[in-house]
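Hello again, I could really use a second opinion on something today. I've been staring at a protein lately and its backbone has me curious. You're getting the sequence in one-letter code plus the fold written as tokens. I'd be grateful if you could look everything over and explain what you see. No rush at all, and the record is pasted right below:
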Amino acid sequence: MARRGTRYYVQWAGEERVVEIRGGQAGLEVLVDGTVYPADVAAVENGDLLNLLVDGQSATYAVRFEDGAAMLSFHDREVRVPIEDERGRMARLATGGSRSGGADSEVKSVMPGVVKELLVAPDQPVQAGQALLILEAMKMENEIRAPREGVVERIHVEAGQAVEKGAQLVSLAPL
């Protein structure tokens, strides 16, 4: 969970953004690359979803944190947003570590559902954002996409299989 006053380095749309969350006179403020945006966040539907209001723009999504990233689930897609706080960044830089050290090699289900269709096969190269499979959940078809480029190492499910939230779907290996 985000801590107020901490600086975060967020990868979004191929660019790194510096984000800081802090309290302001009117409530919560989010600084993105030094620009201040008034913000508010509220849990909806028993806390399963969050509604974020930033600078008058509203978005509702589900979020979970894993392996140094926020997994944001919108109506029909999932987005992996790598996030690193100042302490983690300093430790990684001091040890010469890589930010993309394979932490996103496992693609997991963000919700319970049924695998409708597999779109890739083992040993197939994939690009970041490429659809791997279709997961039907709550009467909606969701494309589950590759978080990074790689090669499909293993497919853990088959068409027609029911899966729980957090179930392994696909393993990726580096190209």
About this structure: The chain has two domains: 7-95, 106-173. The chain has one helix and 16 strands. The CA atoms of residues 63 and 72 lie 5 Å apart.
